[in-house]
Specification:
With 356 residues, the chain is of the alpha/beta class. Helices cover 17% and strands 26% of the residues. The protein contains 4 helices and 37 strands. The longest helix is centred in the C-terminal third of the chain and has 36 residues. The radius of gyration is 28 Å and the shape is flat. 33% of the residues are buried.
Amino acid sequence: MLTGEIARALSARIEGDESIKIDRLVHPACAEGPSDLALAMSQEAAAALAGSKAQAVVVLAKNGDRSLLGDFKAVISIDEARSALAKLTALFDRGPAIAEGVHPTAVVAPDAVIGEGVRIGAYSVIGARSRIGAATTIMPHVTVGSGVRIGAQCLFHSGVRIGHDVVIGNRVIVHSNAVIGSDGFSYAPDLNSPIGFTADVKVTRIHSLGNVEIGDDVEIGAGTTIDRATVQTTRIGRGTKIDNLVHIGHNVVIGESCILAGMVGISGSVTIGDRVRIAGRAGISDHVRVGDEAVIGPGSGVATNVEAGAFVLGYPAIPRERALEQFVYGGRQKRLHRRVDEMASRLDALERMVKK
């Protein structure tokens, strides 16, 4: 790819040579030669430009310096770092290395339908009646259960487990050791009941007869688990991004374009709207509803419904403004207690004087 082509793909300005062939996108300190494009959008990276072996560089326009042309043959200036980084990394991501076609050690059911350009790695298993869409990549040691429908251009990393009858849309990425379609954690009597368990209570399994549906352009992190529904469908909406080590319980419905950070736990039968952001290690209790565009802060425990657009924080989660007030007043308590103690001592002294 040439420097001019990269600039046009970014809708960015370029000064200097537009014909330099670029093979890699690297930190300036890691550049090994003229085919490396140095990415210098932070102060730390910009400081490393002085000793870089690259001939072309990407910089933020607000930090750009025309004098760089004295050291580099091409300078690409971008206006916004994050969106440019998304485009740049997409341009240079070659994806995981895997041979075309189906590996000889893979086990594919005779009635499975495999689309054009599908790649299936070593020791993977594709179950009966399953359908794999065109140009999907299944890395080694992936298990796809029976009756599964997978869309086109998906990527499943090694160790992924997909249960029976799961439906997955187009361009979905699932990272290593994620499990989609495991049974829900559901028993009789209700494990959350306030009534104590007695010695004669028998805990009986409630079977999971439903499935899981994943929308287009969803990404699911490593070690994440998504339980199938009891009799209906656990749903993840289009464009939602789920980090590593997230648990999503049975009957959960998550809307479109949501962000779930690492170690989030969502109990059964929770409903989450569109464009909701949930920070790391937050937990949501069962049957709670979270409205569109709500934000749940890190480490929060959500036990009640959250209104659309609300920002809640804390354990238990309360509106952010109230939570911050509590944090501030909590920090003042030691000083307040000291003042109360001083006032009590003065009052005792006055009482002793009166008694005299």
